Every structure is written in C-alpha cells, then in structure tokens.
Amino acid sequence: MEAYLAENAVARVFLSRQDDPTPQIRDHSNMARAYAALGAEGLEEVNRLMVKEAGQLGFGDPRILSADTTAQELLIGYPNEPGILRGIAQRCLRALSRLQKKGVQGGEAAIEQAKTIVRSVKERHLFAKGKEEKQQVFSRIIHETEHLMDHTTQVVKGLRQSADRVMQGAIDKLTAMKDVAVRLIPQVIHWMTTGVVAKGKILHAGLTQARAIVRNKAGKKVACGLQSRINRIGGGYRFGSLLLSSPDESKMPLVALASDRKLFGEKTVPEL
What we know:
Blueprint (H helix, E strand, L loop, with lengths): L1 H6 L1 H6 L13 H30 L3 E13 L7 H21 L6 H19 L3 H28 L7 H30 L16 E7 L2 E15 L3 E5 L9 H13 L8
Helix pairs in contact: 4-5, 4-6, 4-7, 5-6, 6-7
C-alpha cells in the first residue's frame, strides 16, 4: 500500500495525503488492533452505514443483487505456527510491561518467559537447520508458551478488577491470550503429529475470528480467513455476515433477500 500511494497521485488525494509522497500507512498489526477494538459488530455497522449511504447517493443500486458463500481471506502474514505463538508472547509482554509500570509486582518471571519465546522463534527462523532441528526448537517454543500461560495466570490471579483503564486493559489482554493459547496449542500439536491442519485452526493472535477453512481443493487445500455470505448490489458495494455453519444452497436466495431487506427496507424487491 505504501508503494501504491507513493506512485499514485489520485490515491494520495483520496486519503488527503497529496502533499506527502511517502505517507506512513498502517500495517497489518495496526489493522489487527483496530479490528479487535471495533469488534465484529462494529465492523459490520461501519460497512452497513457505507453501503446504505452509497445507495442513497446513487452510487449503489439495490435493484441488482447477487450473493454467494465464500472464504474471505484476510490480509495477514502467512500464519506459520511459531509466528502465531510469538504474537501471543509479544502481546503478553506489552500487557505485562504496562502492569509493571503501574507498580504491579510478581510479573518479572512472565516477562522473562515472553522474551525467551521471542528469542526462540528468532533462533528457529535464523539458525535452525533442517526439519528435525526446526521441530526440536518448535517443540521447545510450545513448552515455553505453556510456561508463559502459567506465569500470566498467576499474575492475573493476584489482581482484581481495576478502575484504572490501562491496568484493566492489560488484565483483559492477558486473559484473552490465555484463551487463545488454550485453543491454539492443541491445534498446533495436531498439525505437528499428523501434518493436517486442524479444522477451525486459529491463524492470528490478534484476529482470533479468522480460522483455517479446510477445502481440499486442487492447488489450495486450506484457505486462511472467514467463511462468509457476501451480498453485492449494483455498483460493486458489498455487505454480508460471518457464517458459523454453511447454509443449504437452495436457501441462499431467501437468506440473501432477507439480508438485503434488513439494510434497504422490508419493501425492497431487487429486479435482478
């Protein structure tokens, strides 16, 4: 995106950055935090407002409606397992550092454990040679992550709900990372022992709603993202919802129409 904006004057004008040829654009980590802050309902509401406004201004045409179920892949780095565990450790490290600055004692062991995981992932990436050595280091990273979760559990146990926004945010983050690790580590071990990606495997420590979708299609057995129903109106504007289970294809037209009417009114009847 940075390269695109550096080369494309129209894109810079669109973002009100026409006077800056090298704008700093948010990377996937910033976007992950924004996703987490808005939540699924917040993101859906933002998009609904945009689509509805587009229709009112004449850019979107509700008379034309198409719909499909799809694997909506996310713009995140390739979800390798050591990288996901490092993401958990980094988030714990930031939360523990905030607690330490607030005078909370007893988190030193957890901080050191988180730093150890980050170093181990770097070691595996840079220095481990061959599959066997990489597997050995990876097994160690898994055990280190389990120890980190034990340490953070003890830290959180010693703290109560806090009126301090920073402290409570750090506590919530540690609790969330424990929940992620509890679900993720068995999935990682399953992959290590069988070579098969677990159904619904977590792909990103900050975007836990994104999961592995096992499709077994030629050339691409696993999609990384969200199983969604996407509706598209004339003009290219899209809206939809996350699918927890795949509906029967014969019911899709009615499901799509209900979703369309929810946005544009109960009397909406697409011509096409």
